[in-house]
Amino acid sequence: MRIDIITVLPELLESPLSHSIVGRAIKKGLVDIQVHNLRRHGLGPRKTVDDYSYGGDAGMVLMVEPVYKMIEELRSERDYDEVIYLSPDGEILTQGIANELSLKENIILLCGHYKGIDERIREHLVTREISVGDYVVSGGEIPAALLADSIVRLLPGALTDETSALSDSFQEGLVAPPVYTRPAEFNGWKVPDVLLSGNPKLVRAWQDEKAVERTRERRPELLK
Predict the structure, then answer these.
(1) What pTM, to 2 d.p., does this model score?
(2) Which residues pair with 32 in a beta bridge?
(3) Structural domain span for residue 143
(4) Phi, then psi, of 45 in degrees rounded to 5
(5) pLDDT of 169
(6) Per-residue DSSP letters for the chain?
């Protein structure tokens, strides 16, 4: 799989893409993530990529021309399944979307910055818009890293135990049940006996029950 990320601040993506599961997946050759500085296609001697918005609103807007040139450059090298803009008003990222995107071959992630991007980019170049929540952050770099992480960890071989992702929250429409590790008792706080029973059927039944119970308490809308 290949993920190309377009940004005006590539430095913000260096650490999130270099460590842990994503970093190991890159080293294993499971995914190729390339970060592209939009200023390579900036205009004029100062490599300008933004300008004031028509209408006089406050804040700078990413211009259409640099983004167009960057996407066209990438498209000249390979076909892309999606060109995704990280946007506050896009569809909310879910585990189902991460599952879907993990099956793609090539995707572009476009990071907005400043006030946003010229609407013509959204109309003519972007194929999908994804939001990481109903709030605004300074740019699309952190959301892009979050989206990339949610995708890469699902690739075969990315996790030491591939079955681990199958029990993550939201994979079955529920949040995950409680988990415990050693010691079996600490400070008088005990691990539930069923988890120490060695009976897989009883453990699974307990996990299913707790997943539903926790979902009802914390995310009741999922049960609808």
Answers:
(1) 0.90
(2) 2
(3) 2-152
(4) -65, -25
(5) 56
(6) -EEEEEES-GGGGTTTTTSHHHHHHHHHTS-EEEEEEGGGG-BTTTTB-EEEPTT--SSEEE-HHHHHHHHHHHHTTS--SEEEEEEEEEEEP-HHHHHHHTT-SEEEEEE-BTTEE-HHHHHHT-SEEEESSSS--SBSHHHHHHHHHHHHTTSTTSSSSGGGGGGSTTTTSSPPPP---S-SEETTEE--GGGGS--HHHHHHHHHHHHHHHHHHH-GGGG-
Q: In sequence order, what DSSP letters do the residues of 24-51 get, joined into one string? A: HHHHHTS-EEEEEEGGGG-BTTTTB-EE
pLDDT score for 63: 97
The predicted structure's pLDDT at residue 173: 85
- Note whether 117 and 31 are same-domain residues: yes
Whether 146 and 178 map to the same domain: the answer is no
Q: What pLDDT is stored for residue 94 in this prediction?
A: 95
Contact, 165 vs 202, CB < 8 A? no
As a whole number of angstroms, the distance between CA 94 and CA 117 comes to 24
Mean pLDDT, consecutive 10-residue segments, the chain of 224 residues?
98 96 97 98 97 90 98 98 96 96 98 93 98 94 97 94 58 88 97 97 96 95 88
Question: What is the total count of domains within the chain?
Answer: 2
Write down the residue that tokens 């605004």 correspond to.
136
Domain of 51, CATH number, reads 3.40.1280.10
